[in-house]
Amino acid sequence: MNVGIFGTGNLAIALGRAWATAGADIWITGRDSARAGAVAAKIGGPTRAIDPAEIATAVDALVLAVSWEGLEDALALLGGPDGSLAGKTVIDPTNPVDFETGRLALPSGSAAELIAGSAPGAQVVKALHLFAGTSWPYVGPAESRPVVAICGDDRAALELTASLVDRLGAETAILGGIDAARQLEDAAGFVMRVVVAGQNPRRAVPDVEPSA
Ligand SMILES: NC(=O)c1ccc[n+]([C@@H]2O[C@H](COP(=O)([O-])OP(=O)(O)OC[C@H]3O[C@@H](n4cnc5c(N)ncnc54)[C@H](OP(=O)(O)O)[C@@H]3O)[C@@H](O)[C@H]2O)c1
């Protein structure tokens, strides 16, 4: 599988390394081609750097591993507003959250819907925003596999994202269409607040067996 990553920061490196180890071909792009080249070298293997305007045609899925404030700029470099991402699975791991307060930075909607609105035809999936990049790949006991909650409107894009989550060693829970993204993004703020309050968020949600 060919996986594209827009971003040259911590999450891009962590996901790129984990997926490359799992056998995917990684393509890195960003606003700075020298940084993209350096990150591709850091990830290693057959990882390549590529111009943002060319990445959509090279990959099966594209992850936008950028600060949420940079989303519109990134989409412009990718040609998203001109339709370059039409039909493409676009994974949004961003956290539009005020890290001081844990509140969502967007007054309404979500970063994922912002992407869908700015990149006509893109099959946007919200995913991978809650767990730190250092969580991947998960290599612990199978019964403790992390569950990555995702949402999106396109079935094939959700399935492709689920297969990428599987390659990280995790499982997927599909929570609904893209209109569920605000709740998913708010969950990140909740997690941050629990951490700031001095507790482990793992113990801040009930242990519920779905079959019960
Ligand atoms: N790190 C994690 O563990 C983690 C986990 C889950 C979700 N996330 C989310 O993933 C996203 C990236 O996190 P990160 O930790 O990788 O952040 P980071 O290390 O600070 O990297 C941010 C990336 O965004 C790019 N960027 C910022 N403004 C931009 C703009 N205006 N136009 C184009 N690119 C821009 C930066 O480009 P330059 O290098 O050129 O400055 C850099 O590649 C964030 O939304 C974060 O909330 C992170």
Descriptive overview:
- It is built from 7 helices and 8 strands.
- With 212 residues, it is of the alpha/beta class.
- The protein has an 8-stranded mixed β-sheet with strand order 3-2-1-4-5-6-7-8, with helices on both faces.
- The model has no long low-confidence stretch (mean pLDDT 97).
- Bound molecules: NADP nicotinamide-adenine-dinucleotide phosphate.
Record the SSE blueprint.
Layout: E1 2-6, H1 10-21, E2 25-29, H2 33-43, E3 48-49, H3 52-58, E4 61-64, H4 71-78, E5 89-92, H5 111-118, E6 123-126, E7 147-152, H6 155-167, E8 171-174, H7 181-196
Parallel strand pairs: 1-2, 1-4, 2-3, 4-5, 5-6, 7-8
Antiparallel strand pairs: 6-7
Bound molecules: NADP nicotinamide-adenine-dinucleotide phosphate.
